[in-house]
Automatic annotation (TrEMBL):
Organism: Smittium simulii
Signal listed as a keyword: yes
N-terminal signal peptide: 1-16
Active site: 164 (charge relay system), 196 (charge relay system), 361 (charge relay system)
Protein name from the UniProt record: Peptidase S8/S53 domain-containing protein
Length: 419
């Protein structure tokens, strides 16, 4: 085996680095369900004491890169490589690893656990009629006469990070407030090829179809143009967004200006993942309130991530009759419901394109928009995630959702936040 042949050479290369291995205990390895599993790709989470020590963190990254050089030696193609390094959302990295390299790496005492990378899916389905905004201003059922009550300054001073397929930033309804942040899949451009991210961003904060009509919308593209996404790319997006927000806050303080606040939307689903949930929860504790969609499989959302993470809000969808959408996931991991069927919003194809989409992907940004609205009224400092979560849940309309299927019967309500 190549690893064994190179064993002595490897330790010669990394002599002086402090690595400890044990012949018995390996780091835990969590494999993904076959439907979501990405072959030979893994997310490695380092122990906190390693990650927080810059020297130890750098030593481990040098170690894995040296190991990979050795394991790729004499092979006809490059199989092993490090792709993303995480130094904010948590400490670790994603890598492509063959079985022998993976087995060897698991002996490193720097590693907390390893999880197989996962495919992600977008939580929209398809097809008609503007009603979502008006519904969250009504305690009773929606009628054609219902109107959206809002504060025109909602979202002022808030950056909303949209983890999705990109945003059509030239759309006139964004009024120049939508910008490209980063694309984490390799070789991807800022273009939104599917329209999903543009539609989501429009619900959060576009002029006509949005809730927080003064929010800045930042595109964090975590999907390829064909709609394929990986958990490791989503985590890289969160890692970037946290650093971007920290940079913006520090710049504002330096210039003696009001620091921006941050919210985020993740209308995506993958298999149950400790790593994904940890990434979302760590971001939330760092003042980035992430709202998640429940998923569109009409099953228990506790079986999926990031919907099953507990700190923020997971949102199921209703239709115009206040019925749980037949597609919407449900269960104790769903925090509340919001409009999700036939929601109009901004789209791709032109600077004025509009589409009606259906899914929990459309429900979550209603809640994200309300979160942005509330944060814009918090004064000098943002509400912490516990306070913000409680405010949204406490004001929700109770017991109006039909057929909630063992889910908290709470429907988003925004009118009480109008000031």
């Amino acid at each position: 085996m190549l690893l064994l042949k190179c064993f002595g050479l490897f330790f010669g290369l990394v002599s002086g680095a402090q690595y400890s291995f044990t012949p018995v205990e390996q780091a835990p390895l969590y494999l993904s369900p076959e439907e979501f599993a990405v072959p030979n790709r893994y997310i490695i989470t380092l122990k906190n004491n390693v990650g927080k020590n810059q020297g130890q963190f750098n030593q481990h990254i040098d170690f894995i890169r040296s190991l990979i050089k050795i394991t790729n030696f004499q092979q006809s193609e490059v199989i092993n490589f490090v792709e993303k390094v995480y130094d904010n959302v948590f400490y670790g990295y994603s890598a492509s690893l063959d079985k022998s390299t993976l087995d060897f790496l698991r002996y490193s005492e720097d590693i907390e656990y390893i999880e197989q990378d996962k495919y992600m899916e977008l939580d929209d389905v398809q097809p008609d009629s503007p009603w979502g905004l008006a519904r969250i201003s009504e305690r009773d059922n929606y009628t054609p006469a219902s109107q959206f009550n809002y504060n025109p300054n909602w979202g002022q001073g808030v950056n909303a990070y949209i983890f999705d397929t990109g945003i059509n930033t030239t759309h006139v309804d964004f009024e120049g407030r939508a910008v490209f942040g980063i694309a984490t899949p390799p070789l991807e451009t800022e273009r939104d090829c599917t329209g999903h991210g543009t539609h989501v961003a429009g619900i959060v904060g576009s002029k006509t179809y949005g809730i927080a009509k003064k929010a800045n919308l930042i595109s964090v593209k975590v999907f390829f143009c064909n709609g394929t996404g990986l958990a490791s790319y989503f985590i890289a997006g969160i890692n970037w967004a946290l650093k971007d927000h920290e940079l913006k806050v520090n710049e504002a303080i330096k210039n003696k200006k009001q620091p921006p606040k941050a919210v985020a939307n993740a209308s995506i689903t993958s298999a149950l993942s400790k790593t994904l949930n940890t990434a979302v929860e760590n971001a939330i504790t760092k003042n980035m309130f992430i709202v998640k969609s429940a998923g569109n499989r009409s099953t228990d959302s506790c079986n999926y991530s990031p919907a099953s993470s507990g700190l923020s809000l997971t949102v199921g969808a209703i239709n115009r009759l206040s019925q749980k959408g037949v597609y919407s996931n449900f269960g104790k991991c769903v925090s509340m419901f919001a409009p999700g069927t036939a929601i109009p919003s901004t789209f791709v194809g032109s600077t004025t394109a509009i589409a009606h989409l259906t899914g929990t992907s459309m429900a979550a940004p209603h809640v994200c928009g309300v979160a942005a609205a509330i944060q814009s009224m918090s004064g000098a400092n943002p509400y912490d995630y516990g306070t913000l979560r409680k405010m949204i849940l406490d004001k929700a309309t109770k017991d109006v959702v039909l057929f909630p299927n063992n889910t908290a019967n709470l429907l988003l309500y925004a009118k009480d936040f109008v000031k």
